[in-house]
């Protein structure tokens, strides 16, 4: 089976970095046409640089990086250095990448790449949805050549991680999330309900570090940093594997359970801004949206280890 064409839109970010490492390590399954970056966990300049850092570490200079939007569509920007560190990559030591992002804006790159693709492209969003939303608004016809949009974002039963009911990626740009959910032809959403089931416990991270090699060492370093922050905030043992879950879904969907759903994003309430209202009273024939409810955590980490091995 030929590799699936994908485009990864992200805001690296510790967990975005692990997601990129996993995707870069699967060239047999994922044909990465581009990585586009957006302001989110840290500023737009840092997210673009960080994507280039991870690209170099993975030895995947064949994949272009495009820097995108510097702020959300409507709301004021909100960043998360408190969780991802000043650089956005936790305690990871790195050199400045030799190659930076391309000159084309990420929104224009998304429109061009999707429009020109012979086979429909899967878009993976692991940060605020700003770039993809603006691409859809700028060129609605690209929806015809999108196979699926896979989004890390939202929360239902777990509650929020930035407010009582909102998950960070959706809270950071709720208006963009609304556009993606209503304009994309098919959307699969992996929110906190499922990512909180996939924890980077100390034994799992130690097993990853024990593989040897630069990719595994970097992934373990990033997850260790996240776990320390998670523990310090009293949010349990082991960082949830938020963004890498999207790539795991593409590589091994049998490890997950998803249900057809209607998802509405709160865009105006000062109390529940970014809340995702998830309604399961719908059939697959009535919606193009799926909400992922469960994951085989051991299976996901086995997949991560297999791909990170030298």
Explain how this protein is built.
The chain is α/β, with parallel strands linked by helices. The protein has one domain: Ribonucleoside hydrolase-like (Inosine-uridine Nucleoside N-ribohydrolase, Chain A). 37% of the residues lie in helices and 19% in strands. The protein contains 12 helices and 12 strands. It has helices at 14-24, 44-58, 81-84, 106-116, 130-138, 168-172, 174-183, 192-195, 202-209, 214-232, 244-251, 297-308; strands spanning 4-10, 30-37, 65-67, 121-125, 146-152, 187-190, 199-200, 239-240, 256-260, 262-265, 276-279, 289-295. The protein has an 8-stranded mixed sheet, sandwiched between helices. α1 (14-24) packs parallel to α2 (44-58).
Question: Could you write a compact summary of the structure shown?
Answer:
With 310 residues, the protein is α/β, with parallel strands linked by helices. The protein has helices at residues 14-24, 44-58, 81-84, 106-116, 130-138, 168-172, 174-183, 192-195, 202-209, 214-232, 244-251, 297-308, and strands at 4-10, 30-37, 65-67, 121-125, 146-152, 187-190, 199-200, 239-240, 256-260, 262-265, 276-279, 289-295. It has a single domain, classed as Alpha-Beta Complex (Inosine-uridine Nucleoside N-ribohydrolase, Chain A).
What is the subunit arrangement here? single chain
Separation, N- and C-terminal Cα atoms: 24 Å
Q: Give the strand content.
A: 15-25%
Total count of helical runs of at least 4 residues: 12
CATH class: Alpha Beta
Look at the structure and name the CATH superfamily: Ribonucleoside hydrolase-like
